[in-house]
Amino acid sequence: MKPYAGTVAAVVLLLLSTAGGVPPRGRFVEAVGENQLDKLIDEIIYEQGQELIKKGKDKIRLPDFHKKFEKHIVGSLELEAEVHLENGWFKNTTTLYRIGDVEEKDAPDGSMTFRATFGLRTAVIGHEDFNWKFWMLQGSGDMDAECKDNAVTVQFTIAYDEQHNCKVNLDVAQITRLGSFRVSFEPDGFVNKLKGKLFTCALNVFASRIKDTVNAHLEDALRAALKKVDICGMLPF
Questions:
Q1: What is the pTM of this model?
Q2: Among the CATH numbers 3.15.10.50, 3.40.228.10, 3.30.450.20, 3.90.640.10, which is that of 23-234?
Q3: What burial letters (b/e) apply to 138-170, b meaning 16+ CB within 10 Å?
């Protein structure tokens, strides 16, 4: 092997990494290894779940929702529908599981940012009181619905102050994908099919408000979890 072959290979690897061919390894991964980083994130998510359970937030209360639908048919004829959902809850927030490896991005100032995506096993939403009205039909009761294909994104940053004290800050903890809700009522029949369509439509309309409510609790629990896990103590620098 020629004496300069090793140098050429190193230059090629550097060019590939900067061009996106070989992703550069972050400082944290270089120090502790990829497996250890994945285990660390899993530990944080475990502590997050324990925090939600301890505070009774594994079943999160939702605000009341009210929606009126109007559909112009022909001439002056309009069909109207109303949906009122009260005393609602969202559960299964403690069922996060990591999807893939954790991404690390290092900044020139020495800070390190970590981002991971998690699945959320079937979310369940329910309301203890609902009222509905469609034209001349109306009714009330309670209901629950399932929501699959969900995703949560978590991002946090390790940074150093002027005295080189290590700090961990939560940047993002939010539901980035909430699959469509599907509501059905038994027994099968015209009225129950109509109710199912009304409430499915209403819940999907309210999806952004549901996410906002749940995200606030996820963030609080993850901040508490980050304090319990000694991330800075793992760093050799």
A1: 0.76
A2: 3.15.10.50
A3: eeeeebebebeebbbebbbbbebeeeeeeebeb
